[in-house]
Amino acid sequence: MASASLQFFAFILALFGVFGDIAATLLPHWKVNADVGSNIITAITQMQGLWMDCTWYSTGMFSCTLKYSILSLPVYIQAARTTMVLSCILSAFGICITTVGMKCTRLGGDTDSKNNACFAGGICFILAGIFGLVPTCWYTREIISNFLDQTIPESSKHEPGGAVYTGFISAGLLLIAGVIFCSSCFRRQQGAWIYPPKQHHFSSTEQESNAGYSLKDYV
Asked: Which stretch is the leader sequence (predicted)?
């Protein structure tokens, strides 16, 4: 019962991680630059994401521009696109597989099949967390290095946006969920190896009685 509740808790963490991973991939809040200038009425907030760049004016206007050209983008943005998409795909596969392999569900067949499915789902969550953690770290490093560079003007410097923090939290949730699923399956296998199924040994008197009973029946 404890293992089933722990797996359900890990599944809830993985769901939050998947939703956060998808939101971080689509949101344009990876880079944020607030240019107030001399008049706060004409303040401009520029946001850059993996797929689009958006500008918000204090007057209420909001405009976005899609990034159509892939080759013109920096390497870290191209890598972030690829790894975040892979993270979303792997986490979605993990949700489907662990739904079958969890102990609290009636899918997946026997215990060994559910155990293997649960372990495979945990591996998918761990890989998804790694793929989500790498681009956020790389993207944050680029933002900090550009911010500390004295040759770059102040108007071109940015700060990490909400999508970066969402990506960090989602990657952490996926990693925790994957470790819980894998450890729960490993404990089951370890318990099966340490405590093998007991075999019933019959005494010699019972075997003789059984043998005698069978001979009398055939006479």
From this structure: 1-20
